[in-house]
């Protein structure tokens, strides 16, 4: 806790010291445009996503840590398939994390499973 408090204090001091050097400089605005939305507050498509990757067919794969699953979405953000549940067996996850694709295989890391 002390270490965290020290780091936050150090960051605050560093920002305070550099603020005067930013005055008078042009601040550039970046406009963002939403191109895809996956899930919403009204549905349960995503709870706490961790890993995201897309394949050559434009499908989007997401690991969802809160419901221990891997979810597949189409290029419009519609849920196509959900697999996995909490557990230590085949097809089960304890903490699904990062994703990788190689040679048409999808790899999912599970933080607490060996």
From TrEMBL:
InterPro entries: 6-blade_b-propeller_TolB-like. Gene3D superfamilies: TolB, C-terminal domain. This is 6-bladed beta-propeller. It comes from marine sediment metagenome.
